[in-house]
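Q: What would this complex look like in 3D?
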Amino acid sequence: MFHHVKELQFNARVSSPDPSFAKLLLEQFGGGNGELKAAMQYFTQAFSVRQAYPDKYDMLMDIATEEFSHLEIVGATITMLMGSANAELKDATEQKVMKNVTKSITERAEMIHEAATSPEFLVLSGGGPTVTNAAGVPWNGNYVNANGDLTVDLRSNIAAESRAKIVYEYLMQFTDDPYVLESLRFLMTREITHFQVFTAALDTIQPNFPPGILQGDPRFTHAYFNMSNGASARGPWNQGKGPWNDGGQWEYVDKPRDTVVKSQGLIEFPQTDPRSNKDIQQQNENLGRKRSEEIKAKVPKGSNQWSAYPQTELDSPVKKAS
Amino acid sequence: MFHHVKELQFNARVSSPDPSFAKLLLEQFGGGNGELKAAMQYFTQAFSVRQAYPDKYDMLMDIATEEFSHLEIVGATITMLMGSANAELKDATEQKVMKNVTKSITERAEMIHEAATSPEFLVLSGGGPTVTNAAGVPWNGNYVNANGDLTVDLRSNIAAESRAKIVYEYLMQFTDDPYVLESLRFLMTREITHFQVFTAALDTIQPNFPPGILQGDPRFTHAYFNMSNGASARGPWNQGKGPWNDGGQWEYVDKPRDTVVKSQGLIEFPQTDPRSNKDIQQQNENLGRKRSEEIKAKVPKGSNQWSAYPQTELDSPVKKAS
Amino acid sequence: MFHHVKELQFNARVSSPDPSFAKLLLEQFGGGNGELKAAMQYFTQAFSVRQAYPDKYDMLMDIATEEFSHLEIVGATITMLMGSANAELKDATEQKVMKNVTKSITERAEMIHEAATSPEFLVLSGGGPTVTNAAGVPWNGNYVNANGDLTVDLRSNIAAESRAKIVYEYLMQFTDDPYVLESLRFLMTREITHFQVFTAALDTIQPNFPPGILQGDPRFTHAYFNMSNGASARGPWNQGKGPWNDGGQWEYVDKPRDTVVKSQGLIEFPQTDPRSNKDIQQQNENLGRKRSEEIKAKVPKGSNQWSAYPQTELDSPVKKAS
Amino acid sequence: MFHHVKELQFNARVSSPDPSFAKLLLEQFGGGNGELKAAMQYFTQAFSVRQAYPDKYDMLMDIATEEFSHLEIVGATITMLMGSANAELKDATEQKVMKNVTKSITERAEMIHEAATSPEFLVLSGGGPTVTNAAGVPWNGNYVNANGDLTVDLRSNIAAESRAKIVYEYLMQFTDDPYVLESLRFLMTREITHFQVFTAALDTIQPNFPPGILQGDPRFTHAYFNMSNGASARGPWNQGKGPWNDGGQWEYVDKPRDTVVKSQGLIEFPQTDPRSNKDIQQQNENLGRKRSEEIKAKVPKGSNQWSAYPQTELDSPVKKAS
Amino acid sequence: MFHHVKELQFNARVSSPDPSFAKLLLEQFGGGNGELKAAMQYFTQAFSVRQAYPDKYDMLMDIATEEFSHLEIVGATITMLMGSANAELKDATEQKVMKNVTKSITERAEMIHEAATSPEFLVLSGGGPTVTNAAGVPWNGNYVNANGDLTVDLRSNIAAESRAKIVYEYLMQFTDDPYVLESLRFLMTREITHFQVFTAALDTIQPNFPPGILQGDPRFTHAYFNMSNGASARGPWNQGKGPWNDGGQWEYVDKPRDTVVKSQGLIEFPQTDPRSNKDIQQQNENLGRKRSEEIKAKVPKGSNQWSAYPQTELDSPVKKAS
Amino acid sequence: MFHHVKELQFNARVSSPDPSFAKLLLEQFGGGNGELKAAMQYFTQAFSVRQAYPDKYDMLMDIATEEFSHLEIVGATITMLMGSANAELKDATEQKVMKNVTKSITERAEMIHEAATSPEFLVLSGGGPTVTNAAGVPWNGNYVNANGDLTVDLRSNIAAESRAKIVYEYLMQFTDDPYVLESLRFLMTREITHFQVFTAALDTIQPNFPPGILQGDPRFTHAYFNMSNGASARGPWNQGKGPWNDGGQWEYVDKPRDTVVKSQGLIEFPQTDPRSNKDIQQQNENLGRKRSEEIKAKVPKGSNQWSAYPQTELDSPVKKAS
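A: Here is my prediction, written as structure tokens for the whole assembly.
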């Protein structure tokens, strides 16, 4: 269960309202690389590993919870940046607009223009955040990547943190409010930290490459297909040893169409991975069996229970299941 | 900020795996009336009232936090209902399928069929929950209704709780696992309770009808337009005093087209509300000014700060803002 | 079937074109609280009650039809606010842009800027409405709440009307065209009226609380969980009798984590509702049987027919079914 | 405004409930080629032509209104095909599931399986239609094509009717209920009729090719680029006169890459259209001016009004505008 | 398989950066009528006809491939229109914003404003295109219409090309960069050409009306229902022979409600098509058998193979299948 | 531009039709981790680097083009797995269903059931692929991650390849057709290869950590917040040196709420990164300037041109720009 602590994790402040920046900042509230995405991604991934890998569960839930706490910081900042918009909207007597005309046509025009570029705030949410990105597009469950395999999920997380980091970096160019900059820098920094957390956690799982269980077909792993004409760039990504640590070398297929025709649709394409198919099959079977058993050892076959009360050990709920 | 407590709020258990019901239960994980929707709705609404109405903020955050805790219960139950699916998928040696054929063709056929009706679990999430509804449609930010006005938002919440309640009621017909039924009954019950919380809170705000600030145009408030032919139902919703507590009566417009033509597009339609337009204008101005001032009194004009450290009073952050 | 009457229900007029406000007004054409949502919501709900509750069907279809008529008013207003945009776009000779430069650079710049903030109008719809909200997000079928239970659906409608009302209230602050204001005030007023219609109709169904059939688990109905730290707000929503009309009192759970651990995940939590579980079961069975029979009495088991020709009584089609 | 006539346009009947087919039929309720899409497409297109082309407005609104009437037929059929599902769900006493087990395990299993393949009906809508397609994906505003030009919109409509027709044709293979087949055949037939209506209407607009105002660049209109290798199909679509009625011939570009390089990115590509660029510019200017003036002649520059009361002539509202 | 040729099909150039127009142009990159939609539509349709109609496959793949090449032109133009945005964002030292203030407050304000109207570019994509339309709404698979019948699909394509053409026509009004105009004119022209390709191809299929296989119900094909009141437009779309080439005439149903009641829901409606129902049934059977056999003759019943290596004849893969 | 080669890159074959697996395989056609996503992601990323980093452009376009070629393999396999569905649907005489009843009720029931679980194939696409995932949810532009920074984008790609790989791994468990398995294994293998390509390419960019330009705030980089109660897992991700290669150590914040209160919302939180803030600022400025200048050196300030004809060098278009 969750508990809400009224103190924000970081002391969010604004120097003065700035509705334009509030709109941009929505990108990290309800956008595809924002805090809700991160929180929900780690939270959702955590279910699959709760029983089999309780140490990784602990880590995923720590970070999911921190991301929910960051979502709160972002929402608080947006709300403060909208200033008195909510109060203005409450003063809704019908003559008000015409009165404003007499007072100041510029102020009115600005308010209308503001509404036109940020309709979500002024005619929909009444000045609070919306669960959308900066363009007003609603947050979407398919932002969340959770595939039930830590060697995949942790890589999804490293990439997610990278994207969240660059979006904060971009956002920092569009405000000079020192309080807001400080909050953004805090949030950006935490993405870097989480990147490192996930990197370290991935490293404790061996083997973790290729992601999942199965090795590739040794005919095709080391082949690079040059799918375009003209001058071709060569580099460690398509020549020499590259990142292959099994003695393999890149095989550069310069004219894919010719190769495909000659090999009858690659069926007769020569093997590029130095390992034999038989060795690979053995590896697949061993790793599949090992991982499968790790999980089966922890997930009860019949009735099951998620929590112990109190939960004193990392895997205590497992012990309680009868 | 949030804190994660490893004990679930309710002791979620399953008697045995049931992937079909797991799929149905997704409706309350990532569906339009599910726990994520509820949690995010109250959480998002809370920002607008943080400073002006800290008592309502406290209530909204209590319930948002409870809904996140319910989301966890639903996800845990789905995961346990999927049983050893994740472990099975890890045993991914390529010959496995053919081996299975020799062992049991039925089991294999069932697994394939299961995958076809629940592709999200078996070829995507690896057995964990997905942020979708039971049909696989991703959760969407526009499920969240937050309009910056408590007389509106609390009504959105009462309706949201009603829908969540009926979905649990329907779901309870599709399982007979006593553990799962007990959890569903707990979750369903909490929707009833929250319905009452929001009802009581709405009642403390006066006036709360009509929602928002403005009264209706007295020409049109009490008119009911009979937009269909044939036999017409009459009842308290279109005749007599109905729910009008200002001495008004329903005005039943039996032949709308004739009325519209005769009144030049309702411009010359006689007034149906007994109150004068002038009185209504006065009411609008008074209420608009009152609500606007309530908010302005609490939201600082210049720099602003969300939290005090520690936050000892309901509205302490306001006092800390300089 | 429907019939289209060429006269608008309300005499929509504009004093002069105003493309910026046209864009804002899209919120009520294709937005989540707009007229299409309302029309489709009541229309969709109506199917389930056609045979069992023909009086409620009549009411839902009257209002659905009125909402379609309002959708037409909103679309007409948007089109008139776009003025001659469509004609301008037709004058599409390729040299036009350069000619415009010589004539007036400001006008051209404004037109480009207008297009940038409202791309849907100028490069997509050619000046007419789009089935999107003000931010350009397409209308979505999941805006519609129809759950096959009047005690739920009518509450969804009351909330929907509340949201539609506040959006009109907000919109009225961004125009001072008296004709447009008059139309908006008409539309806003009708939301108030429909709110009252649905309230009165809900009141004719007894019991209507809790929504649906089932009572809550008496252990949990009256408990309020204080899910946050610091100062806590107390009020009728978590102390005293609150809105409970069965002699019950709120039970305030101050430290939920302690309570959860002590009660083994609330399994041993003491009952908060004064009614016995047995009484509640009886109530459930009685109401379930009653509502189920009400419907079965009206919906034929075998072949079925929707309409009689002519349809002279509220439930005549039922009689025609053989 | 709209008026609801309680008689369905076509006498929708079902011989007996068939929830599986109800699910398939959703495709025409809330799917991309269904009745709501058609109704909303013609309704939305109609706004742009209301004042300038009132005869086309009359036609578009006639058909939009008929499509709303078809949507009602589809929804009624789905509801009747769901039979007593709603009544069953109301009998929601908590012991019911276990009682059912004793009575008939098959019936229960079937109901659960049904729910798993159609979650929208049984755990969400309570047996009524949902605003989704047959897979449960919500209807979407971007199904509607309305581009503010009749030579485009009418072609969008011809294509839309073609798609709606084939979907009904496919659906007719999955039921043998003669009543349902009769309704489907009626609905399918009307798509054919509307196809012809739009074809005839398009024909009254001259010129209507190319759609819109501008002629193509005479260098490129008649060129066909052979973008694939191997054997190439030749036919009236890339050789001979084809559908060109200006004396032009197809120019077949056999080796696009060579041609592109030789012509410096087609800049020096020889003209394929026999008309001179100057003639084309003249055509563009003439047609642009003509269409633009047609519209300006009917759409008032200043204040505007949509309807006359009563509306006795096709374009009477225009005359009423002051 | 595809091959990428580094030369663009058309020599895309820009005279100078123009971020506002870049945003508008997104409509044709990731919008509903843009190049990705066209490419994916023809590509997806092509699968169904690969084996049965290899000449149409060749044509669909030629045009799909050209549309992917146009998508590249649009993306390249957007990128060049964004100028040095990417480089500016890289200069991300935290003091930069404040430095900019000292240098030029206008430039900074403009950059912030630009970001607010185009958040996708500046805080998300870093200056490159996004797979969205001009309003920031993501491209969606339901833009693609592919229904497995060439008489339907080719009409969907004719309509799609019409819409793409008008959007380019509209876009050309919002730039005066001669290089950009030249590219837009090329792209617009190709839509006209493809329109003609699809028209000619549709013409080679006989019969192609009605789309699909089945003729309409002869009772209803020729009836036009006048669904609105007031003055009614009459024209070739509802009177006289219209586009019917079987000797039929339009039947104008002036008062649909009366007709519907009198004919008991159209059941007793007199036939409008001069052909007999028996003849129509015969036609249906003949055409259904013919088309079905055309396909079955080419699609192997058992094992199947897509390609021959090399693929020297239009239908060679079929011959290779064993 | 693209060129289509009629030979598939890999010789896709099926042993016999299998519509259930066709449905599952849709996940890799139009799903969030499928081939269209991969193709569009690399294609979209490529625009930003075309001029500044032509070697990375060459690599991204090679792989994007290969992914489009894989999309074709997946679509071809789905189409062949659907067997004669399209031919069956063409045999659409209206009596057919009833004839089928006499022939074989089982076959008919199966076909109806198949349609109910795969409505997209049988009532929508007529047997071809749809641009949706296996649950029928349309492909979405927000699947594509392209953020204008290679240190981010390449990490997004590594994660995307990981997810695509595991989905193929899961899919391989649901078919035993050796031809299909061979194609899936080929496709799965290429994801591993591309993973390595992107890893090697990322490694050539130094520094590449943190992604983007800015270093984190030294107060917060090395802190791990323990956001949950109970037993806590400790490992290289929150204790010791972890992956920090600057001499730093993890700082474990055991009781975040206490720490937050004590440090006044982390403002007074002690620095965790051993580097000084000044050094970090210097690093930020240096790297920002360097990357910014790399791009500016290649992207022309004024007019710009994408391609040279012919394009003989990696960066030739830049040279051609005038």
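A: To summarize the key features: The radius of gyration of chain D is 27 Å. DSSP finds twelve helices and five strands in chain D.
Q: Very helpful, thank you.
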